[in-house]
Amino acid sequence: MFKSFQAQLIMFVLMLLALAQLGTALAVLSSLKEDNYRQGVNSIDVSRNVFDLFLEARAEQLTKGVEILTSDFGFKQAVATRETGTIRSVLQNHGARISADVSILVSPGGELITATQAVNVSGTISELVFAARRSGGSSISTMIALDNRAYQLVLVPVKAPNVIAWVGMAFLLDQTLAEQIKNVTGLDISFVHEIESTHTLDGVSTLPEYEKNTLFDGIGNINSILQLPMFSTDEKYLSLGVDLGVTDQWGVIHLPYGPWIESYNSTRNQLVLIFTGALALAFLFGVVLARNMTKPIGRLVDYATLIGLGADNEKVKAPEISGEFGVLSNTMKTMQDAIINREEELTYRASRDQLTGLFNQSAVELYLSEALPKVQGGLILINIRHFKNINNMLGFDVGNVLLSTVAERLKAWGGDADMIARLNGDKFLLIFERNISEQDCADLKCFFCEEFEVEEGSNIRLDISIAVLPFEHATADVNSAMRRLDIVADKAREESNLCVFYEIGQDENHRRQLTIIRDLPAALESGQLFVVYQPKVGLAGNDCHEAEALIRWVHPELGFVPPDEFISILEHAGSIQLLTKWVLNTVLSQLSRWWSDGHEIRVAVNLSAHDLVDEALPTMVAQALKANHLPERALALEVTESAVMKDRVKVTNVLKALQKMGVHLAIDDFGTGQSSLSYLRELPVNEVKIDRAFIQFIDTNKGDEFITKATIDLSHSLGFQVTAEGAENAEGVALLGLYHCDKIQGYFFSKPLLAEDFFKWRENFHKI
């Protein structure tokens, strides 16, 4: 809600004004509260002065009233003669006239002579009389406490002419007096004293009874309000204590604070109204201001959105705005121009080959994604043969010049092509809307017969392979179409034909190969692959103590997959070592069971070229033999001539390490490879296996017979054992025995068998 700039701006204006208003309101209310309190304090101070003056004036009035009595001759005579009855009667009458509550007559020494009622004032009166005598015998006005009640006492001397007695009249500070003072001050008055047993306040007051009790309970210690007034709990009254000069007797002035509170509340309510109105006005002002301020921003946002959507200068114009937003608008216009130029450059770079200027693979894929599927036209993929050798001999600079020259020549030949592209390295692609014929391939081949000049005076002739994919055989999926084109290109590189067209079924063969590569790990775990054993029969003893392990694969979808097919595919895919490790462990596990039962059979496992260049192979074989508790002589490894020739130095080192361990080594398919006799002499092997091509028809083909005899004699002269593969009839077996072949392997004795069947066959063979 508050994420938009407009909402944030409105909130900013509101918060700013709210803080200002709040600060002002707090200052005004605080000042008003302090002013009200100060006025209340001043009012109560004035009332206290009036309270004191009232008591003084009353004392003076009372003193004059008592002096009238003391100046009466008859009263003086009664005092002088000590006529107690007369004195008491006069005191009662005169006290009633001036509203005295207690009237007394004391001797000059302070002893009580008579009183209108029984009071215990002897100690207090004596002190007052002594104080009056020290002051010259003048009248005294003071406060005294009688029976926890405060009285205003007036003492006047009776002179005849010396002081013969003192007349005292006490006036109770009661409700009536409090009402009189209230009438003068306008404030409520209380006369209180502390009850010793409970330490609570009691007394008379002009306050209503329920408020008096509540207020007395809230005051607590009266000493706390003698200097400064204190609010009641509900803040209805501001009370100030007055020290009457008598222990535990006080006066309290109560200022009703309600009018001040009402004034404060009224002012506060007015401020709230003003505050609310100001906020409302600020909100309206903020909305108007925000709209006016965000309107150009909104226009700029719309402009930026259109820029982001890729609109060009003709469709989108920069908004004409003045001020700082105008500067921003012009800046965005400059940015739009820069983006358009950069996009054009990036688009060109993204769809063009930087070396030749032709389209690249991304442009081809985009074109095909829009064009496919279609029937008319096709793709021509041109691959320069052995271009890597040209780079190695002449350098990459010359290679780049050559590629650029090839691109120019293709532009000249393929003028009617819909697109000419360089895919990568030495691959060029032409896309035609018309059908492509073999004549087009012949013309293109001829066009490349002319030599290319790479440097002045230096020419080179290129050989190319041409692959054609008609659109009618291309799928709607671009990746599938490019895959089919790559399949044809691979075939074109391997063949010497003029060009190769895609044929139906080639893609299925490719998918079959991918399936074989993909499913191998699962097949090893699920038991789809298994090992069979073909016996090797020794002619000298007519016995069988050896066999060759062969792999079989029954795929759940593809059915039986020939070993030559999947082994070749796995070698190209780099997965053959996974298969070799599985075969080795499977064979050694079976051998472990045979050897533990006392049957010392040696089984040969075939190795590929990838296995032989792995320098970790001897270690792996040693660990596998040890894990199965087998001696090294239980295992034989067979390698082909072509595998040995792949990396002569590394392969020889691996074979030497295996032979040093005691593993029996054999050269398989001897006579079909390219190894020299001198190289064969240096190989660390124990056995030579003559290929079945020379053995299968040895009884009918004299050439095969002579080659076989020469191979056996040569191998024996080099110290190798000889095994003949592919013996299928008794005549061939007899000739091999005549030429002293060591071992024979072939269908004449047995086809490859499962482990249990092989063992049974061996047992039966030895019984014959």
TrEMBL record:
Domain HAMP: 291-344
TM regions (residue ranges): 271-290
GGDEF domain span: 375-504
Domain EAL intervals: 513-766
Top-rank taxon, per record: Bacteria
Keywords: Membrane, Transmembrane, Transmembrane helix
Name of a matching Pfam family: EAL
Alphabetical list of PANTHER family matching this protein: CYCLIC DI-GMP PHOSPHODIESTERASE PDEF, OXYGEN SENSOR PROTEIN DOSP
Protein's name according to its UniProt entry: EAL domain-containing protein
